[in-house]
Design goal:
The structure holds two protein chains of two kinds. Chain A is mostly helical. Chain A has six helices and two strands. Chain A has a two-stranded antiparallel sheet with strand order 1-2. In chain A, a hairpin with a 2-residue loop joins β1 and β2. Chain A starts with a helix and ends with a helix. Chain B is an all-alpha fold. In chain B, α2 packs antiparallel against α10. Chain B is globular. Classes of the chains: A mainly alpha, B mainly alpha. At the A-B interface, α1, α2, α3, α4 and α5 of A face α2, α3, α4, α5 and α6 of B.
Chain lengths: ~110, ~240
């Protein structure tokens, strides 16, 4: 691929980012969403995040791991508990990484 | 400390400072996630300047990861573009979440706001401004800008670090897991009623089952299935929310 071709490709991908991220923003006040749609959209963030998270936690290389040997899921459960008690984001990440690293070293 | 004639801090400025403090908490997660993406870009065969150009223009980690094998295989530009759009489809839904809050801005400002609206900011903004869209407009723009600066810079610094350190960090360390944990901490506060529990459960299950679908379309399907499940539970419990 030449330099120019690569630059064009990055321009296309940047346009893809803009189209999706700004889609309803640029339609602006021309679009009035019905109360039903707005109610549904309340749940969009939580479901989207769950949809991104779940494969990371349950799958390894595209297939389901047995629950007991799934170190990421075990660590994430511990981290979730830690977060619910502490409400600390950075602390939870550190705690979860420590759980994961500890389990990985001692159970491997 | 304040000189006696100091002007009172505007609501926009104080919202900006408030958001900076919140935003920096997403820093470690985004840094780690950016680092994984930076490493993947270089390891897929992109040169350093190609990887830099990609991260500073495209700024969409999941789409970047998805097109790397296509670029390496010299796939046609149309397929690469289509893949990027499809992987980014979830952002169309995200844009609808913040659109009512910014409908008063000129179009180019809305375009720019959209570009910087990434996964990590998703829960934070609606939680801070749960009221009607037309309220607190000054504060909202300041708050949004205050979130953009830490999220964008942590991601980019992590990304560049990943490119430079690609050959030095063993994948067994699982650095990417820090990004997963960061997402977890912004998901939990959003699960505030039984409808949300159902939505999260269904979305997670569908996403896992549909992982093999092309262009990560399973992700979009999972979001719609999750929203439908949440609406169904709301319908039967007649939650006042």
């Amino acid at each position: 691929m030449t330099t120019l071709e690569y630059c064009w490709l990055m321009l296309l991908m940047t346009i893809a980012t803009f189209i999706c991220r700004s889609f309803f923003l640029t339609l602006g006040s021309g679009v009035k969403l019905s109360p039903w749609v707005r109610h549904a959209l309340q749940y969009a963030p939580a479901t989207a995040l769950a949809a991104i998270l779940a494969p990371d936690l349950f799958l390894a290389n595209g297939s389901m791991l047995p629950l007991i040997s799934n170190l990421k899921l075990l660590s994430a459960l511990c981290a979730a508990l830690y977060f619910m008690l502490s409400r600390q984001m950075v602390g939870t990440i550190v705690f979860g990484m420590l759980c994961f690293t500890g389990l990985r070293i001692f159970l491997a | 400390m304040n000189p006696p004639n100091a002007a009172p801090i505007s609501p926009q400025k104080s919202a900006f400072h408030e958001a900076l403090l919140v935003g920096w908490q997403t820093g470690p997660g985004l840094f780690a996630w950016g680092m994984v993406t930076g490493m993947a870009m270089v390891q897929s065969g992109l040169s350093l300047w190609q990887a830099l150009l990609m991260t500073f223009t495209v700024y969409a980690g999941s789409a970047q990861l998805a097109v790397l094998p296509l670029i390496a295989a010299l796939a046609p530009a149309s397929i690469i573009f289509l893949t990027a759009v499809l992987v980014n489809l979830r952002f169309v839904i995200f844009s609808a979440v913040i659109a009512p809050h910014f409908s008063h801005l000129p179009w180019y400002q809305r375009l720019v706001c959209g570009y910087f609206h990434v996964d990590m900011m998703l829960g934070v903004f609606p939680r801070r401004f749960p009221g009607p869209a037309h309220e607190n407009r000054e504060e909202k723009l300041g708050y949004f800008a205050g979130l953009v600066i830490p999220t964008w810079s942590s991601w980019q610094v992590g990304s560049v670090a990943g490119m430079l350190l690609a050959s030095q960090i063993p994948s067994s360390w699982g650095i990417g897991f820090a990004g997963t944990l960061a997402l977890l901490t912004i998901t939990i506060p959003l699960i505030k009623n039984w409808a949300a529990v159902a939505g999260v459960g269904v979305a997670g299950a569908v996403s896992v089952l549909a992982i093999g679908w092309p262009f990560r379309l399973g992700l979009v399907m999972a979001i719609f299935a999750g929203i439908a499940a949440a609406m169904l539970v709301d319908h039967f419990t007649e939650d006042e929310a």
